[in-house]
From TrEMBL:
Matching InterPro entries: 26kDa_periplasmic_antigen, SIMPL/DUF541
Name by which UniProt lists this protein: DUF541 domain-containing protein
Record PANTHER family: SLR1258 PROTEIN
Organism of this sequence: uncultured Chthoniobacterales bacterium
Pfam family, one: SIMPL
One BP annotation, GO: DNA damage response
Amino acid sequence: MPVSLCAEAGLPNQPYVYVEGKSEVERMADMVTLRFDLVARNADQSKANQEVQAKAGKILALLNDRKIAHGDVIAEDLKSEPQYEDEESSSNRRGKVIGYSVTRSFEVKVRDVATFPKLVDELLALGGVEFSAIDGGLANEKEMQDDVFAKALIDARTRAEKTLALTGMKIDSLFAVSPVRFLEIRQKVLGGHDAYGSATTERVVVPDPMQYRLAPVAVTQSVHLIFLISPAK
């Protein structure tokens, strides 16, 4: 690459190697996040709200009885929407208002995985509860992300050393490190225009007619490094 182009891209103006390191750790989920809405519908908006607030109180009491910590419960949202005679039509042809729908959204972390199926049944038994997601997760996810990041760095160094050993070069120093791809190199050298993320955590829940089966949680990380290099002596 010409020196002028290197300077323009913010890249080294001396020989370098660009490598990507990867790491992944997979664990069984040890916590679950429940996401659901509590919905009430009534011709009278205030009555719909009263019903939602009364059931919300029962939900919070139930969660308290099940030893769910206050910090693991989010219930800050409230939404009220009119309902029309013909909800499927365009906004100016739906007819008159026939009632109201009042919704409160909940997000609950259950740290005892064995208890959440029963809790789901108890919530549904209250009526008006509509689940949107049951997500498996890890209580120590932050520590795992730090661990896979460190392993990705080691992987990148190892890849660089193996590559350079075949070409008679060696690493002098680290020029740059990033959890995302150096776009300057891809765009100016490879001509690509992709965007990349890092430290992603996959949460997948597989439903079953008789029981809930949480999929393993995979914490993955890629890291991009530029090493300055020189001929090996």
